[in-house]
């Protein structure tokens, strides 16, 4: 895993000092709240409904055990003993005090972490596949490129006051687990005709109030040219992106308004002028970063482990967890273990200080001290010996971290909603809890199979409802919360924006509505079909009928 | 109002002329908006006295590509500090077209953006504070950070280049 050198360390310490000084200037009244706002936002500090909120970056969703342990400490020391993992693989603290935030940032800096550019109209934390470096279906580990993007984008002097925020996601696998098609830039690793590995560059995707699936601006860019190409795209956006209307300022709107061909022309023209410049990264430099993400010291094992098989056969609960939460690893004898942060009736993505510390310890014990955060708001221990899975599961279970529901109906993506967020129009957490409770029977969940429910508490779509197989959007109608249902969304390589089913439901009705959709699916599915497959086969009408009848 | 350049406060030696109206009759140094420069290029070039151009957000710095050696100064107007287009204009002027004259940030120029402006090629800053406060702010801003990840035309060594040097030195030593 990447370790800071003295340059990285120095930069974060300087930034921490800079922010401490900015906070002092704000507290002393030297700068106004309006002038302070972009400065605090650039350090991940939001002002929410009840308190300041601190969003800490987890670059490309990769954490070391000592870092996760420190996140647990920060939850206890500066917050109310918990943190919330987000859809951008970051963690948010809901209750820090402004005058203590500089100290919290210093504690983060001690473990090579920060809150830089987790907010503001700049290039945000780069996200990627949570199984990077472990997945059996991966072309190449995307993290070396993510780290290079992290450095290129950190305090980029030209791109710190963009028209709007800018998000980059990278996948190293054909099976996209990073939702790259709904980002400002999505990079998909693949081979060109010459057999070289490079990136398809997808631009203009995004959710929010105007959702779009991204479009390909270049089918293949070589690794050496990736950074000059990114710079060309950002320069085009910075110069030509709309600034007259906050809601039309995202890159996706520019792509939509002038068209992908014109964007391509502008980007290629710009890139041709800078591609031979100092942003060209040579093979030696790339190799240096690949080395930093070298695989851990795996043992040479056979892929079958007799003890593991015996445990599965004897313990149905363990077998169920393996079936849903354990994923194939590229190294024989190892597996990827997903740690669910979606206990039945719990708050999606929340983890307590002691849970974080436990997962940190378990990762030291079982997974080379490597932990990942997923955009679906769970944690991952990416390199676990199959022989250790049973012990790991038992320890996770004791801490309520072994819910066997990965990808199932209770594995809900959910934004903080009106319980915390200043932008929200409805609560989302209580609804996710009620849906989770309604489907609490795990056998039933396993029978239903993969079903991605995503809930947002306002049209900004932080809960990714547009790309939920079932999406739920919480709105406010004359002071009452109501919930709009969308169907058929998909965040994968087959990305689609869901369609609105019809009129919204009251808070009292919506869980029944979701259940009726599931019941309908179970009644009409063909063998092997997931909910989304059935929806694609039969379309909206049969589902609309169960929701609205003749209405 | 104060203009800070090269670690000191300098005098305002330029008159900024509007898009319309008469040009000063004498040999005053004038700065005209790009739109006027494009319209009255011949007259302006033929005039005695220094010539500069002001770029506003939405302008194309490319429009000045053939005339840069005639211009002593280009001012880039930041209508609000949140409007970052001027950073791109500065880099295009310096790095693509090799503009060597003064590049001055005007408008909503605040302390916390000055380092980024400098990294993009600005060498002068017009602040709304008095002389001493302005100079103090620019000095503090320019030394706030010492590690730079991105190569720009500002001549600062990037972390990548310093790492490379270090690796080369270790290689030579061993």
TrEMBL record, chain A:
Domain Nitrite/Sulfite reductase ferredoxin-like: 52-110, 347-398
Cofactors (names): [4Fe-4S] cluster; siroheme
Domain of life (superkingdom): Bacteria
Name the UniProt record assigns to this protein: Sulfite reductase
Gene Ontology molecular-function annotations: 4 iron, 4 sulfur cluster binding; heme binding; metal ion binding; sulfite reductase (ferredoxin) activity; sulfite reductase activity
Stored Gene3D superfamilies: Sulfite Reductase Hemoprotein, domain 1, Sulfite Reductase Hemoprotein,Domain 2
Lineage: Bacteria, Pseudomonadati, Pseudomonadota, Alphaproteobacteria, Rhodospirillales
Domain Nitrite/sulphite reductase 4Fe-4S: 119-272, 411-547
UniProtKB/TrEMBL annotation, chain B:
Pfam families: DUF934
InterPro entries for this protein: UCP030820
Domain of life: Bacteria
Name used for this protein in its record: Oxidoreductase
